[in-house]
DNA sequence: ATTCAACCGTACCGTACGTTACGGTTCGGC
DNA sequence: GCCGAACCGTAACGTACGGTACGGTTGAAT
């Protein structure tokens, strides 16, 4: 597979097997185990993906292609619509970073990010943090255009929103703490983050009252 | 070494060698390389630290014992003193999580956090995220006691401050992005985080004007 | 001077994994 | 029905590493 090609159905099945094993075994994933789980030969793995790193890279892209959340349209943008969009984004982001597959992929990417070439880390960043940023910035700027938000630097503003949403959750999960996020907790957390975000960047009329 | 003992000077030299190699080689650290770098025998390594995991655990504790920042006293607590304390905390925390040694240790801990027993991840969390929380909470509560801060849940409040300080920096660094944080940038970032924090939790007189 | 414990350097063992090679099988095209 | 490509299952190779064993050396206590 070249870096741009879409994996065939058979190849997708292999990549799903990789995801399964990554969740189960963590970085102790072996090519033999992948071949056995996917009922394919190791020779095929190497023909399709080049080497172990290529297989993992393709797995990252495959998983990323599955979590693209719905787009946010900038139509009928009043305050509550913007708040809803941001809340949905935050909730989606929280459930992604706390999903077992995302955690497993981030772990192997981080574990291998020590010494170059650091292919996995770059791919994860491009498909995770930066992809979400590019999808959200138009929403923030649309909110600013209609006077609902006040800020200068879109990138900086997004980073603050990112911090308010993720807080210490991602690092704690990556380090193995067993945090269970139920759907309603995720929604409440997302709501809190958005409320705080509007307290910082929202239009000044109707000052928010954060704190609990 | 038992889990509680203080390493001897010779042992500290070994642990420093581990830190060096961890920064250089990442998770590809081998016992042979440690022995060679530290000019000691592998037999001694195993006698002192039990096994590879024990060596890494002791290294985490050793590094953590070196980054304890100065305590914050709650005397003469006016608004600017509290802001300074929080800013110093934030700046210290940013420089710690962006240091090469901390990054290397977090990477190996995260890489091994996939499958139990996850000793390293727990140790890193206890000495990092949770230790900093326990040291900062008294400051927040002292600020609340004198009416400078308004909040209900100390833990929740700290987590928000954590998010405002770290934002996406830690994850991006862990994934291998080459972000250089100069001291003045760290200080400016810390200042921004504290300003935003006071906008959310500060006393209502003198409303802050965040955004840049 | 002797003893003894700690330690260094190195050789060694078992194992596990990435990668390659090969024989057998399936299946679409002719 | 035949051919060739793609693929499966497995065996094999080379290497690298964690962990152990052992002889030699130092240095302090007696």
TrEMBL record, chains A, B:
<feature type="DNA-binding region" description="H-T-H motif">
    <location>
        <begin position="30"/>
        <end position="49"/>
    </location>
</feature>
<keyword id="KW-0238">DNA-binding</keyword>
<dbReference type="InterPro" id="IPR039536">
    <property type="entry name" value="TetR_C_Proteobacteria"/>
</dbReference>
<feature type="domain" description="HTH tetR-type">
    <location>
        <begin position="8"/>
        <end position="67"/>
    </location>
</feature>
<dbReference type="Pfam" id="PF00440">
    <property type="entry name" value="TetR_N"/>
</dbReference>
<dbReference type="InterPro" id="IPR050109">
    <property type="entry name" value="HTH-type_TetR-like_transc_reg"/>
</dbReference>
<dbReference type="InterPro" id="IPR009057">
    <property type="entry name" value="Homeodomain-like_sf"/>
</dbReference>
<keyword id="KW-0805">Transcription regulation</keyword>
<protein>
    <submittedName>
        <fullName>TetR/AcrR family transcriptional regulator</fullName>
    </submittedName>
</protein>
<dbReference type="GO" id="GO:0000976">
    <property type="term" value="F:transcription cis-regulatory region binding"/>
</dbReference>
<dbReference type="InterPro" id="IPR001647">
    <property type="entry name" value="HTH_TetR"/>
</dbReference>
<dbReference type="GO" id="GO:0003700">
    <property type="term" value="F:DNA-binding transcription factor activity"/>
</dbReference>
<keyword id="KW-0804">Transcription</keyword>
<dbReference type="Pfam" id="PF14246">
    <property type="entry name" value="TetR_C_7"/>
</dbReference>
């Amino acid at each position: 597979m070249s870096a741009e090609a879409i994996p065939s159905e058979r190849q997708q099945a292999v990549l799903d097997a990789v995801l399964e094993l990554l969740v189960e075994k963590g970085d102790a994933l072996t090519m033999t185990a992948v071949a056995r789980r996917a009922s394919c030969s190791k020779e095929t793995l190497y023909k399709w993906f080049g080497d172990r790193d290529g297989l993992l890279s393709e797995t990252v892209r495959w998983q990323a292609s599955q979590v693209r959340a719905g787009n946010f349209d900038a139509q009928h943008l009043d305050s509550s619509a913007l708040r809803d969009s941001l809340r949905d984004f935050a909730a989606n982001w929280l459930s992604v970073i706390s999903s077992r597959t995302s955690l497993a992929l981030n772990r192997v990417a981080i574990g291998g990010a020590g010494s170059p070439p650091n292919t996995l880390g770059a791919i994860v960043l491009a498909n995770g943090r930066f992809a979400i940023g590019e999808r959200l910035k138009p929403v923030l700027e649309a909110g600013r255009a209609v006077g609902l938000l006040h800020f200068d630097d879109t990138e900086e503003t997004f980073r603050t929103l990112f911090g308010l949403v993720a807080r210490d959750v991602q690092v704690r999960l990556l380090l193995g703490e067993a945090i269970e996020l139920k759907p309603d907790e995720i929604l409440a957390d997302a709501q809190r983050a958005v409320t705080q975000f509007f307290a910082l960047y929202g239009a000044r009329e109707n000052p928010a009252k954060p704190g609990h």
